[in-house]
Amino acid sequence: MQLNAVKLANAAAITTVILYIVCTLFVAIAPELSMKIFAGGMHLPAAQTALGEVDVTFGGFLLGLIPLVVYAYAGVYLLAKLYNASVKSAV
């Protein structure tokens, strides 16, 4: 079975946008809790102290969103192409 690389990459990009928006809203609404969760996930108990106060801005939102969506799209597109090539060579 071949994967449609463009459709899969589009779905990944859209999913990334949705999750990024949800994450940004969470940080804007509960910045201290967000930093505690981040620190725990990164195994950095002092991350909240090191990073200081979290301030959500539109510029910062776009600065994080755009590269993340590009990386998600490119990564999933490449994954699908490599998968298709491996399936083709196995048959």
Report on this model:
The protein is an all-alpha fold and 91 residues long. It contains four helices and no strands. α1 (5-29) packs across α2 (31-41) and α1 packs antiparallel against α4.
- Number of distinct beta strands: 0
Looking at the structure, what is the overall shape? elongated
Q: What are the secondary-structure elements, in order, as H or E?
A: HHHH
Helix content: over 70%
How many domains? The number is 1
Rounded to an integer in angstroms, the radius of gyration calculated over CA atoms is 18 Å
Number of helices: 4
Largest sheet: none
Instruction: Determine the N-to-C terminus distance.
Output: 11 Å
Question: Structural class, please?
Answer: mainly alpha
Average pLDDT, to the nearest integer? Answer: 90
Poorly predicted residue ranges: none
Strand content: under 5%
Brief digest:
By secondary structure, this protein is mostly helical.
